[in-house]
Automatic annotation (TrEMBL):
SMART domains: AAA (SM00382). This is Branched-chain amino acid transport system ATP-binding protein. GO terms for molecular function: ATP binding; ATP hydrolysis activity. One of its GO terms (cellular component) is plasma membrane. InterPro entries: AAA+_ATPase, ABC_AA/LPS_Transport, ABC_transporter-like_ATP-bd, ABC_transporter-like_CS, BCA_ABC_TP_C, P-loop_NTPase. Residues 23-269 form the ABC transporter domain. It comes from Deinococcus humi. The keyword Cell inner membrane does not apply. Pfam families: ABC_tran, BCA_ABC_TP_C. Keywords: ATP-binding, Nucleotide-binding, Transport. The keyword Transmembrane does not apply.
Amino acid sequence: MTASQPAPSMHPTPPATERAVVLEARNMTRRFGGLVAVNDVSFDVREGEIFGLIGPNGAGKTTLFNLMTGLTPPSSGTLTYRGRTVTGLAPYRVAGLGLSRTFQNIRLFKGLSALENVKIAQHIRTRAGLWQGVFGSSRQEELQVERRAWALLDLVGLSDRAGELAANFSYGDQRRLEIARALATEPQVLLLDEPAAGMNTAEKGQLTGFIRQVRDQFDLTVLIIEHHVPLVMNLCDRVAVLNFGQLIAVGEPAHVQRDPKVIEAYLGGE
Ligand SMILES: Nc1ncnc2c1ncn2[C@@H]1O[C@H](COP(=O)(O)OP(=O)(O)OP(=O)(O)O)[C@@H](O)[C@H]1O
């Protein structure tokens, strides 16, 4: 994976605690029958942060992502994005506001090429855009979409396989293609659901640097669900820990790692 170096900033990045709050989750709860998959979860994510979400299997991490991106309506609670309530909006509206995601169970168009997957994502941002994408946009717009798709494939190291069907890609490559597709929607917040799953050791090793570079290059705020603990601890500015749907700790990785509740619930079991 390659990402060209961002231009050096004229202003030093302020510490996370002084940056603007981008996302405010307040008392988010989701019940499935008698099961409370996400239980009264509140946290803030600040501009430019890489924010990790960890917890044992079934802790509620993917459900929380689904609540945040409109896939699943919450039973109660709200998510505010730059002061605007997002909960209740359809997924394409949430994506249109600038929140884009990848999926734990990869959701590429497997019968389309890598290039087509990324091109379509650029049209998916709004319904109007999709309509235009399917039924015709100007030649110049199409060229722009094509150029951008190639650049994104290049970024994730897949431009030499642009014409291959997504179905033929390894899991690791499909995850990288999903990241390119998510970036094609021009997000401000990128939510990655287990991006290292299916990647080999070398790919996992590269992922930390790659996510940081993408964050810097596209001025993103990143939320990441990840089981690979060393990756989370190296990569994230802050980490939130879910256990049985409840948020049991939020803080810097080193701090969270020492929290007895976390050790008992999760890290102790590693
Ligand atoms: N649509 C659904 N209907 C019923 N139960 C659900 C549904 N989605 C999730 N659950 C349940 O909610 C709980 C949380 O699941 P979730 O997938 O969010 O956990 P997770 O932390 O992402 O787990 P993993 O690390 O294994 O991916 C689990 O007990 C799961 O079985």
